[in-house]
Every structure is written in structure tokens, then in C-alpha cells.
Design brief:
about 210 residues; alpha/beta; five-stranded parallel beta sheet; about 50% helix
Amino acid sequence: MEKGKFIALEGIDGSGKSSQIGPLVKRLEGLGVPCRETREPTGGPVGSLIRQIFTGRVTADNRVIAALYAADRVDHLVNEVDGLCAAIDSGITVVSDRYYFSSYAYHSVDVDMDWVIQANALSAQLLRPTLTVFLDVPVETALERIHKNRFVEEIFDGADRLRKTRELYFRAFRRLSGVENVAVVDGAGTEAEVAARIWAAVEPCFR
């Protein structure tokens, strides 16, 4: 049986990636590709703790958060109930809202990027994305979207931090050039326009 593909959507908060997963999965399913969508942090025990930290219900040092993300990611891949590795091995294509490039960017604001990459090395060994799609938008646009659509401001949503995070995404892309397959897509415009750009990047993976 042919394995499924793994497509990771990335971007700073407010980039619009979460709203693009559904249309991408629907388009793939329309072509007869069995699909599953997922997101990080997960709904598992470690991911649930991370979400509580984000909303301020639980406090933790940013270095602890980086380690929790690495643990949640491995569980996302190998847990016996709905692990991604087993799904992809069975022929299902998975589209994920965030994967380890999010950690490389967001956590390297506080922790050395070498450490973050090494902490996620097992995930990279277990499952490297067929393609990582990065939706790039100006920080000002992202903040407008965040403030319009959220009632709770999460800990990573400040303008300075988002600006630094965007820079670190590109630093990680440069660092892993030749290792990772990354497509940078303009995230500005209507949802339909962005969806068309994403499909132009993703479609070659299914030829």
C-alpha cells in the first residue's frame, strides 16, 4: 500500500492557516485522496496542558513549554489511538495545523535554536513533512486578525514577539534548506485567493 502524504501548514498567529486546512482537505478528498486533518498542540494530555498555559490557567517557563511541545509532538506521532505515523503508513494523507517548524520559530525566541531542533529530532526522524507550507503575512495584518477573532490574547500574540517569530521561521528555513521541503505562500488576500496559492504549492506532491 502506498503511504499517505504529510502536509504541514505553518505561519505566525493570525496568518490564516487554520482556516485553510478545511478547504485543502476537501479539495484532496475531491480527488479521491483519503485525508485527515489535525493540529498542534493536540487534544491529548500534554497538549491540553499546553493550551491551559496559553490561556493563563497554568503558568510555566517558556523553556518548559518548548519541552512540552516536543513531548506532545512525539505522542501525536506514535500514540496507539490515532498516531499520525500509523495513519500515513495505512495510506491516509494528513494535513496538520503546525508541526516542528512552529517550535523552531516560536521557542527560539527564548531558547537556543540548536536545542529546539535537537529536542524535536525524534519527530523529524519519525515523520518529516512531504511539504511545509508557510503562509506569510505582515505582522500588522496578523494582529488585526487576532484581535478581531479572539476573546483571549494568548501569550505568544504580542507584536514584537510575532515579528521576531517570523524572522526565526525564515532563519530555520535557511538553516534546513536542502533537508526540508518548504513553500512560502503569500497569505494576503481573500480565503479563495490564498487557497489557490496553497493548492499550486501542494498539487505537485500528488502527481
